[in-house]
Design a protein that fits this description.
42 residues; mainly alpha
Length: 42
């Protein structure tokens, strides 16, 4: 039972980390596209 619990905690941390990293990465990419778009419009 303890092993299953440890596995669940580890999985949650990994999935959470991937989601956070993906969100940050996407935000930075969108930010760059936004800057490019502003440069294009000005």
């Amino acid at each position: 039972m303890k092993t299953l619990f440890k596995f669940m905690v580890a999985s949650t941390l990994v999935v959470g980390g991937v989601l956070v990293a993906g969100t940050i990465f996407t935000t930075k990419k969108i930010d760059k596209y936004g800057d490019d778009l502003q440069d294009f419009l000005h």
